Amino acid sequence: MSRLNRYTQSLISGYALLGMNMLYTLGSVPLALHYLPNTEELGLWALTSKLGVFIAMVDFGLSASVARILIDHKDDRAGGGYGAMVKTGFLVGTVQGLLVLLVGAVLAFHAGPWLDIGPELHRTFTWLLLGQCCLLAVSFCTRTLGHILAAHQRFDIVNYNQAVAQMVTFGVTWFFFARGYGVLSILYGHVATVVQSVVFNWAGCARLHLLPRAGQWGRITAAQFKEVFHFGNDIFIMALGALLVSTSQTILVTRLLGLEAATIWNIFTRAYDVLQQVIFRLFDYSSSALAEMIVRGEKARLQARFRQIVVLSASLSVVAGVMFALCNTNFVTLWTSGRFASPRIIAKD
Question: Would the pTM of this model clear 0.70, i.e. be above it?
Fold first, then answer.
């Protein structure tokens, strides 16, 4: 399969996944509003989700570093460097998973009062955050499977896997909502997603014979760890900046204005998040192909493809910004059946 075909399939599957995410969001918010007694519990889920994103920063850019370095070695599996990097990825991910559990446990038991969460919600907050951290730890331990698929430009397998997982998550969440499990139902739905993702990614790697064969696993060396950490430093700084811009608002709104205000913020910015994903897909699925061009020394083609992606994404950004500014309030009003008809928020005393 040619590089262009792999990119096209990745992009199509990426937009299919995005469409499924939109359907999931359109259905999950009304579902939660129907079963939850108050909007504070929904805000609690949004808060713990954002805290989970911050906790995931213990990655320090190492996962992206492993994914990138795998591309350097994937054309020469017999040398052992590819297999050694796969083992390095699993080892790094396992250590990161343990750190996630440690940091998550500390926050789960001590962050509630600082965030001004009511005493009646402390127990729920603790279980939600602990549960999300456990799922996050599992994903860290196994995410190298996804990196292997990405290094070989098979994002389509990952995307279709996640699209099916969205349907499974919605069904499991609805099942537990109907049986009175409250906001914890959303957590149970995500358990099904993580399990399915691990199984499907492993099956994809095995079916395409992307895992190293016997005798090709190589040895983990200090030089490999140094390479991973060196490359990950720059990625971590970039990711930290992007994280502060995109996710810190929910935590600050909860602390200063309360959980109900956090719910309103989360709902009114959903469309913005989706539009961002529409544009970022162009870069996300081209990263492996562009990195492969760098490894193989295809400089002229790299320059041409990068220019095309920048022009297209910039044009889409202008259109998306205008659409969001003009249509978001009316969309939220229709989406929530008028329950959130205006983004007016009054600060707490």
Answer: no
